[in-house]
Amino acid sequence: MNNQKQQKPTLTGQRFKTRKRDEKERFDPTQFQESIVQGLNQSGTDLEAVAKFLDASGGKLDYRRYAETLFDILVAGGMLAPGGTLSDDMTRTEFCLFTAQEDLETMQAYAQVFNKLIRRYKYLEKGFEEEIKKLLLFLKGFTESERNKLAMLTGILLANGNLSASILNSLFNENLVKEGVSAAFAVKLFKSWINEKDINSVAVSLRKVGMDNRLMELFPANKRSCEHFSKYFTDAGLKELSDFARNQQSIGARKELQKELQDMMSRGEPQKEIIAFTKEEMKKAGLSEQTMIGIIWTSVMSCVEWNKKEELVTEQAIKHLKQYSLLLKAFTSQGLSELSLLLKIQEYCYDNIHFMKAFQKIVVLLYKADVLSEEAILKWYSDAHLSRGKSVFLEQMKKFVEWLKNAEEESESDEEETD
């Protein structure tokens, strides 16, 4: 037996040096910050010179790595600590957004600086959006003047499509909302946005990111009403925004009502109950009968699976609508409501190709059920119809309209004979 300790094998050979590019570079923004601050101090208030300096520096400095530092300096003059205060141990510049003049013209010039920078270095786009989201969360750490400048700049950038409206999510932060910071900031932001473009630009951008129905969230829950929103923004000179929000809330209420009606019909609830519920909701939401009949028509036509065959769908539609004639009749007590319903039917038959040939039969059914009057049908035929599918539908209705006119003439002559 060998008592000697067995020697462990050892590896020998050349030791490879780690390549410089494989070493993880330490995150140290100090030198980057000093370079940016120095350049801004040399450019001063000349924003053309600032834009040129930033354009040229992108080739030498690591914008991709230090994007947050870059935007912090351009906005606040130095790196921001959590909460929005400037870091004490860092170099700062007095030439930044927060120290600029508080007027729209200066903010437009600053917007151009950011626009040029991001167009030149496309990879900064995402970092810039993240920066704005962060700055909005830091609003309480800024002075009122700094908030105003940031709001104006953000409004201009949103109007020109340099930012997505999704950044406004930060304004729904509970603490900002509770202290009224969000609403005050929104006033300045939307004013500069509308000044730069118009309310349609606001509407399109908000809809794109699903925020068109969320503006009420700028206020605490106990003040989240259409009345409060309307008064606040109208008093601030933003009546267009108040009207937009009111309209959006009305659209939201209509969609909810339509869905509820659809559900009631699918459950097979009695028409009397549906009528009572609809009248109550119509009163609550302040909806006109013309608007209501449109909602009812859509609900009635959406609560059934339609046959794909043209020859069978007409029969199915007649049977289905006969079932709901009482409901339709309850909300066509005015001539304008009848016309609204006729236009909805025309629109529906045009949009759903299988219903193109069903139009006349639907109108005749509703005439017989006392939902539509001959006056409304004649008015629609002569000059109140839509242009969509006009020739097809007028041709379909020609014989019935002639019959109505003849019946009307006979009725008039009978009256004259009686006299």
UniProtKB/TrEMBL annotation:
Protein's name in the database: (spotted green pufferfish) hypothetical protein
Family: Belongs to the BZW family.
Gene Ontology BP annotations: regulation of translational initiation
Start-end of Polar residues biased regions: 1-15
Region (Disordered): 1-28
PANTHER family: BASIC LEUCINE ZIPPER AND W2 DOMAIN-CONTAINING PROTEIN, EIF5-MIMIC PROTEIN 2
Any single Gene Ontology cellular-component annotation: membrane
Keywords: Activator, Transcription, Transcription regulation, Translation regulation
Domain W2: 247-414
Keyword Transcription regulation: yes
